[in-house]
Structure formats: structure tokens, C-alpha cells
UniProtKB/TrEMBL annotation:
Belongs to the OSBP family. The keyword Coiled coil applies. SUPFAM superfamilies: Oxysterol-binding protein-like (SSF144000). Keywords: Coiled coil, Lipid transport, Lipid-binding, Transport. GO terms for molecular function: lipid binding. One of its GO terms (biological process) is lipid transport. This is Oxysterol-binding protein. It comes from Solanum stoloniferum.
Length: 588
């Protein structure tokens, strides 16, 4: 926050009237010139000609000045707009770091020690960059060998043809990547693929209005004259998904959990944790090339995703506005996944660093539990250049049985020819490394048995197995760059609308308008809801409680209290307020 303030102070704030004021009339007089020329005995006509020349010269100078002033004004507005975006982004994804520091509860402390150290030091010295990845001074080597070189070598066997199922349309093949490894049991191969087919859309609706140009200026001019703090970021920067829906994106590759469940059932806990690790990495795949902001859900907004085609149902709710926390709960086939997410941010001028706080928990029906936290994400080029994000740091997947896993996400450097690398190891209770993982968070993950964490011995290596491969992008990519899975998330499939509570993200009007390409309406609806959301803090202070999640006794994390699907069965939504409509006076 301090850093943000410091940067803000760097921008001089001129009032709009100052900026728009016409250039003061520069009085140009030729009197002195005339007198001089008269003294020299120059003729009247020559004097008049000289005066004309002078006046013309000044007029063109004045024109140039006006143009410069106009350019200056545009630049100032651009700067202001950029500043607004920054602040808005902060508000959406971030919350007061101090508040969070104070609120570090037992569950947060459960996380890896190094990580908590990093967050604690933040309040002491906000300006010192604490790099979770660098901080990790573990015994193992930190070197990242070049997986690309390795993957392209002839010793690598498991790429080639991936597993395909016939029960899916041609569009859906490629979904369940699996090594062409004959030894893999077909039951494992088929785990997570034998679910009923549900017809879902393959593209977003065609935009009703023409897409607006990417020009920042087109948006700036709409905001001229507004108080900086009241300017809301135009909907143009949003993608037609809420953060609640975005959290469901982590489950795109849920078949990895189905496989993990099946492996464990057969007593192979190593294969189980390898699939869990691949799942944890796969959650990042959809962030590549995504540069729009998800909608910030309203307090109490919910999102349900019933996906029998993936053998799961997912539910999420925004449980707190300050700090912004989203809780989710997902029931799969043989497993349950839950967590709450809250982002701590640091602003570095041209980039923003987001540190997710909170633990994700995966519990298999046989009682095996895995817990991990997400790594740091940074968004670069906020001011100039192409916006992109990177994920880096160490992720520890802690299991309650035999194995635990450590995954390192390599931080991208400016000249990195091979970014997005992830490498990991699986250790047994005694600390022995039993398997090595490697890949890229936006491409694939492989494993080899044994310890290859130093990268040595890879030449002689003949067996690397594919665990996960990112599925191909949609046929009709939009400017939001949504994955095929994300495209399905805001769809109101036939019959669904009647079953939803009034709090579901799919019913949020501005988001729906944006999806339909009605940009102007989307903007005005967004303004209305944002105005409404300003009441949220007050509501929370007056003891507002989430509907479907509750804080653990003495803990800090939210847990699903149940009842959502039961209420849905009965259509009992009386307790769900109409959050997208107009606010009743008694709640103001
Ligand atoms: C509008 C302009 C200025 C900014 C656009 C910012 C985009 C790139 C930001 C806004 C919110 C961000 C997301 C917020 C939260 C998470 C969860 C984290 O565990 C992985 C990264 C991820 C998924 C972020 C990816 C980048 C993201 C989508």
C-alpha cells in the first residue's frame, strides 16, 4: 500500500478544468517593430508586410503550442487511466496486507515455514522484495535443467500418440492425455473418462455490438471530467467470468484426481501422489495468455457447477469482501477438493505480485489427504508492453500417508528461452527421493522413477512417463483467450436457469451483457452493481455471514457447511437475497 501511494504521488494531479482550460491568449504586438522600422525610414507598405510576416509566424507557433497542450492532456489522461487500472486491480485481487498480517491464523501457519516467514517480513520492510523462490534454501540443488532439450531427445519415449476415448466427439479428443505406455492398466486409463456426455457450448455467443478497439484512448475520453477515485474500470478489461467461476478452472483436469483415486485404491500410492502433483500444476495452464480481469463477485455471490460429464459437482461462494475471500468445495468421484483463497499483493511499479494465502485440501474417500498452497503469481507490464503473468516458488504437497511432494516453479527471467518450467520430487517418509517430476505449467508434466533431481543421468534415461498434457485451445478463440473448459462455465444450459439461486454468477447482468457483447449495457450495469457493492463493507461489519461456508472454530479457513445441493433439490432459495437487483432500504 505504501509503495502504491509512493507511485501515486509521482503522478502530479491536475484538475480537469486546469487540463481543459484554453491556452491563454498570447498577446502579440508589432508596435515595437513598427517604431523601429519607422526610425529606419522604412516605407509604410514595407512595414505592413513585415507586420504580417510576424503575425503569421506567431500564429503558427500558437497553433503548435495548442497541439502540444492537447497531446500533453491526452498523455496525462492516459497516465490517470493507467493509475486507475492499477488501483482497481488492487481492489479486485488484493487486500490490505496489514490486515492480513494481523489475521494470520493457525491454518495459515500450517503452511510451509519459509513461506510464512516471507509474509511476516512484509510488514517490516514493504519495499524489500521477498522472493519466495529464492528464499527457499533447501538442501537440494536449485538448478533447473533444460527440460525442453531433454524432451526433444531421442531417449524420450512417452510422447507420441495420446490416449483417446471414442465416447467423445472429435472436438473432445485430446482431452485425456496419457502416455502410449502399454503397461498402463486400462482401468486407470479410463478413470475419469467414463462419465455421461453432456452437450456444452463450444464457443461464446457472437458479440452483438462491434468489439471496441484496444485503444486505451477510446475509454479515456469517456471518463474525462470524472474524479479519479470515482472512475470505474471499463468492462472492457474484464473477461466474462467471475472469480468464483475462475476458481472452478483449477478443476479442468479433474480426471487426474480420478486416476489418483483409482491408483490409490489399488495400493499404488506413489502413482497417486504423482497424479495429484500433476493436477496441482495443471491448475495454472489456463492462465497462459489470459490478460483480462475476472469480475469481482458481490458479497454472497455463489457459483455452482454440476458436471456429471466430469463426475463432479463444484460450489463456490464469496465469503468475505474485506479481505476478499472465495471458498470452494468440490465433490468428485472418489475424492473431495476444497479450499479458500485470498490474495496478498505487492505492487512493484510495473508489476504486481500476488501471493495466495490459504490451503487447498484434497481428500480421497479412503482417508488419504493431501494439502498444498499455491505459488506466487506476478503480473508484468502493467504500464508498458504486453501484459503477462508468471508463477514461481515452491509448492509442497503434504500427504498424510507415505509420500510428500515438492514442486519448484522456476521464475522466468527476461532472457529466458525456456520459461514456465516446473520440477519436482516425491519423497517417502525417510526422505528418500523415489520419483522425479518435470514439465511446464502451460504444457505437460512427466515423471521418472528414481532421483534425477540434479538433472544428471538424463541422457541414459529411457523411461519418462507423461502424466498430464494441456488440452488444445478452442477452435474459436476470443480476445479473452478462454479455454474450452472455461467457455462452458457461464453457459445457461437448458433448464438450468430455473434451478439456480438468485446469487449465481451466471445471473449477474453486467457479466452476461459482456458475454453477449453488449458493452455499453455491461458498463452501466457494472457501475450500478459497483455502487451497490460499496455497501458490502458495512454489511460485513454488521455481522453478515456467508450462507454455505463457515469459519472453523478457532480457525481461519472456511469450510462448506453443506445444504446447497439439498436446497437446490427443493428449490428452496428463500434465504438467498436478490443481490443483483436493487437493494432493499433496510439493508442499506
Ligand atoms: C486489466 C489489467 C490491467 C490486468 C489484468 C490482470 C489479470 C492478468 C489478472 C487479474 C486477476 C489475476 C488472477 C488472480 C488469482 C489467481 C490465482 C492464482 O493462484 C493463480 C493466478 C490467478 C489466476 C491470477 C492470474 C492473473 C489475473 C487473471
Amino acid at each position: 500500500m505504501e509503495a502504491l501511494q509512493a507511485v501515486k504521488d509521482m503522478f502530479p494531479r491536475m484538475s480537469n478544468s486546469e487540463l481543459m482550460a484554453p491556452v491563454d491568449d498570447v498577446a502579440v504586438t508589432t508596435d515595437k517593430l513598427r517604431q523601429q522600422l519607422l526610425k529606419e525610414g522604412v516605407s509604410e507598405s514595407a512595414i505592413q508586410e513585415s507586420e504580417l510576416i510576424m503575425r503569421n509566424e506567431f500564429a503558427s507557433l500558437q497553433n503548435q503550442l495548442m497541439l502540444l497542450k492537447q497531446k500533453h492532456r491526452m498523455l496525462m489522461d492516459t497516465l490517470r487511466q493507467l493509475e486507475t487500472e492499477k488501483v482497481d486491480l488492487e481492489n479486485t485481487v488484493v487486500d490490505e496486507s496489514q490486515r492480513q498480517c494481523k489475521e494470520v491464523g493457525p491454518s495459515a501457519r500450517l503452511r510451509q515455514d519459509k513461506y510464512s516467514e516471507a509474509s511476516a517480513s512484509e510488514s517490516e520492510d514493504d519495499n524489500e522484495r521477498v522472493d519466495a523462490a529464492e528464499e527457499d534454501t533447501d538442501d537440494e540443488e536449485n538448478t533447473f535443467f533444460d527440460t525442453r532439450d531433454f524432451l526433444s531427445s531421442s531417449s524420450f519415449k512417452s510422447s507420441g500418440s495420446d490416449f483417446r476415448t471414442s465416447s467423445f466427439s472429435s472436438d473432445d479428443d485430446d482431452l485425456y492425455a496419457y502416455a502410449s505406455d502399454e503397461s498402463v492398466d486400462p482401468i486407470i486409463k479410463f478413470a475419469g473418462t467414463k462419465f455421461p456426455y453432456v452437450k456444452r457450448r463450444k464457443k461464446l455467443p457472437n458479440p452483438i455490438e462491434k468489439e471496441k478497439g484496444v485503444s486505451l484512448w477510446s475509454m479515456i475520453k469517456d471518463n474525462i471530467g470524472k474524479d479519479l477515485t470515482k472512475v470505474c474500470l471499463p468492462v472492457y478489461f474484464n473477461e466474462p467470468l467471475s472469480s468464483l467461476q475462475k476458481s472452478f478452472e483449477d478443476l479442468e483436469y479433474s480426471y487426474l484426481l480420478d486416476r489418483a483415486s483409482e491408483w490409490g485404491r489399488r495400493g499404488d500410492s506413489l502413482m497417486r501422489i504423482l497424479n495429484v502433483a500433476a493436477f496441482a500444476v495443471s491448475a495454472y495452464a489456463s492462465t497462459e495468455g489470459r490478460i483480462c480481469k475476472p469480475f469481482n463477485p458481490l458479497l454472497g455471490e455463489t457459483y455452482e457447477a454440476e458436471y456429471p460429464d466430469k463426475g463432479l459437482r463444484f460450489f463456490s461462494e464469496k465469503v468475505s469482501h474485506h479481505p476478499m475471500i472465495i471458498a470452494c468445495h468440490c465433490e468428485g468421484t472418489g475424492w473431495k477438493f476444497s479450499g479458500d483463497s485470498n490474495l496478498k499483493s505487492k505492487f512493484w511499479g510495473r508489476s504486481i505480485q500476488l501471493d495466495p494465502v490459504g490451503i487447498l485440501t484434497l481428500e480421497f474417500d479412503d482417508g488419504e489427504i493431501f494439502q498444498w498452497s499455491k505459488v506466487t503469481t506476478s503480473i508484468y507490464n502493467l504500464i508498458l508492453g504486453k501484459l503477462y503473468c508468471d508463477h514461481y516458488g515452491t509448492m509442497r504437497i503434504q500427504g498424510n500417508h507415505n509420500y510428500s511432494c515438492k514442486l519448484k516453479f522456476k521464475e522466468q527471467s527476461i532472457i529466458d528461452r525456456n520459461p514456465h518450467q516446473v520440477q519436482g520430487i516425491v519423497q517417502d517418509r525417510s526422505g528418500k527421493i523415489v520419483a522425479t517430476l518435470f514439465g511446464k505449467w502451460d504444457e505437460n508434466m512427466h515423471y521418472v522413477n528414481g532421483d534425477f533431481s540434479s538433472g544428471k543421468g538424463f541422457d541414459s534415461l529411457s523411461e519418462a512417463h507423461l502424466l498430464w498434457k494441456r488440452s488444445k485451445p478452442p477452435k474459436d478463440p476470443t480476445r479473452y483467450n478462454l479455454t474450452r473448459f472455461a467457455i462452458t462455465m457461464n453457459e445457461l444450459i437448458p433448464g438450468l436457469k430455473d434451478k439456480l439461486p438468485p446469487t449465481d454468477s451466471r445471473l449477474r447482468p453486467d457479466q452476461r451483457c459482456l458475454e453477449n457483447g453488449e458493452y455499453d449495457r455491461a458498463n452501466s450495469e457494472k457501475l450500478r452493481l459497483e455502487e451497490r457493492q460499496r455497501q458490502a463493507r458495512k454489511m460485513q461489519e454488521r455481522g453478515w455471514k456467508p450462507q454455505w461456508f463457515a469459519k472453523e472454530k478457532g480457525g481461519d479457513s472456511y469450510h462448506y457447511i453443506g445444504g446447497y445441493w439439498e436446497a437446490r433439490e427443493k428449490g428452496k432459495w428463500e434465504a438467498c437475497p436478490d443481490i443483483f437487483g436493487h437493494i432493499p432500504c433496510d439493508q442499506m
